[in-house]
Amino acid sequence: MTHSLEDARALDAADPLAGLRDEFSLPEGIIYLDGNSLGALPRATISAQRDAVERQWGADLIRSWNSNDWIGAPQRIGAKIATLIGARPHEVIVTDSVSVNLFKLIVAATRIQTGRAQILTEPGNFPTDLYTAGGAADILPDHVVHTEQAGDLVDALGPDTALMMLTHVHYKTGARHDMALLTEEAHEAGALALWDLSHSVGAIPVDLNGCEVDLAVGCGYKYLNGGPGAPAFLYVHEDLQEQLRSPLSGWMGHEAPFAFRDDYVPAPGVTRFLCGTPPVLSLLALESGIDLFADIDMGDVAAKSTALFNLFAARIEERCSGHGLELVTPRDAAHRGSHISYRHPDGWPISQALIERGVIGDFRAPDILRFGLTPLYLRFEDVWQAVEILGDILDSGVWREERFAEKAAVT
Ligand SMILES: *Cc1c(COP(=O)(O)O)cnc(C)c1O
Predict the structure, then answer these.
(1) Is the C-beta atom of 128 inside 6 A of ligand 1?
(2) Topology of the domain covering 5-42+297-404
(3) Where are the domains of the chain?
């Protein structure tokens, strides 16, 4: 059975999330399949940022730290994210970047794991996760980063494992780890579990408390639509919070920053993982993005993600077969996130030819074409049209033209 444009439109007509698209400012003539790398701009962010700049900063000036609760933003927004990831409101805080948060949590966690020196992760994890683990291991006594293929992780857990650090959904393939199982196995071995939710949060269900996860980090500018370089978040299970100390003991993580004392005493709870003065405008942009989730059922989001994926994969088979596209993302919805990836030796020029035709996906070296399927603002019709355009490009071979060969700084 082939899927017609009418079929796609029928799916849109029945979509409980269809109305949300109007909450975003999307450019005409563009099919945006890169919301897993930089989420789209919510309309509410435009007016909220204007208010933040003109009224809160311009008119209220420094009084805003109290009167507009700038100072409470990291905890307030953290509590809103907590509802999306199955955490308690006081277990999540918004601060710094994913990379910096990883560093803080890796060092804090391994320091309480006396006698254990191994940080276990997998090869091909997101580069910043690997680099940061390496940098943390360098400053810890005798610590090493050990990488093991996904299928061998459980066997690699042992009496020397201090921390198992994994990314829930793989940024290239879209493959999803079994968080419940791996966390349980880590605990069985006496290790702590740290999950990176950058490609999960806002797109698929996450249940940190249900899986008894110890530590987590996640990204604000992908499915949460927080804007370019939005601050990230971190999660610490309530039972661990008083035991952990941030190695970046900045004044905002002090129990009384405005007492201006010489000695550092960490704040109670997750607040101790703040470091310096929070980026208020960026925090407020992230909050506008997250507020769009307030009235949404994450079950609807997950169901739409699955349906978008199924239509995309089916249409590629119908429209683009024989052109060498190899699906690398697992088909089973329980084993993947919300993007779909294909291997193709000429992925780069094909991705550039798509962008010229208004279909924005991205390319991940060496050969992955990646398409983000964002349930909040993508229509089934968009998926249908995107595959149609990809089919045109592959049939005509236009991507072989020289102008598509040149590499950009950001892919
Ligand atoms: C996007 C992403 C990051 C981003 O890290 P930053 O420090 O915020 O640049 C980290 N890890 C993973 C798995 C990601 O997908």
Answers:
(1) yes
(2) Aspartate Aminotransferase, domain 1 (3.90.1150)
(3) 5-42+297-404, 69-291
Q: Which of 34, 38, 126 to mutate to test the pocket of ligand 1 (most atoms within 8 A of CB)?
A: 126
pLDDT at 276 over 80: yes
Fold of 69-291: Aspartate Aminotransferase; domain 2 (3.40.640)
Does pLDDT of 1 surpass 90?
no
> Does the predicted TM-score (pTM) go above 0.85?
yes
Q: Is 288 in the pocket of ligand 1 (CB under 6 A)?
A: no
Residue (of 139, 179, 144) closest to 163 by Cα position: 144
Among 2, 97, 34, 47, CA closest to 386: 34
Please tell me the distance between residue 407's alpha carbon and the centre of ligand 1 in angstroms.
22
Average pLDDT over every residue of 140-161: 97
At 108 the pLDDT is 98
The reply to whether domains 5-42+297-404 and 69-291 share a CATH topology is no
H-run or E-run covering 44? helix 43-50
Q: What pLDDT shows up at residue 407?
A: 84
What is the 94 CA–ligand 1 centroid distance (Å)? 14
Q: Is 172 in the pocket of ligand 1 (CB under 6 A)?
A: no
Burial 278-301 (b: 16+ CB within 10 A, else e): bbbbbbbbbbbbbbbbeebebeeb
What residue type is 200 in one-letter code?
S
User: What would the mean pLDDT of 199-228 be, rounded to a whole number?
Assistant: 98
Which pLDDT score is estimated for 408? 84
- 98 close to ligand 1 (CB < 6 Angstrom): yes
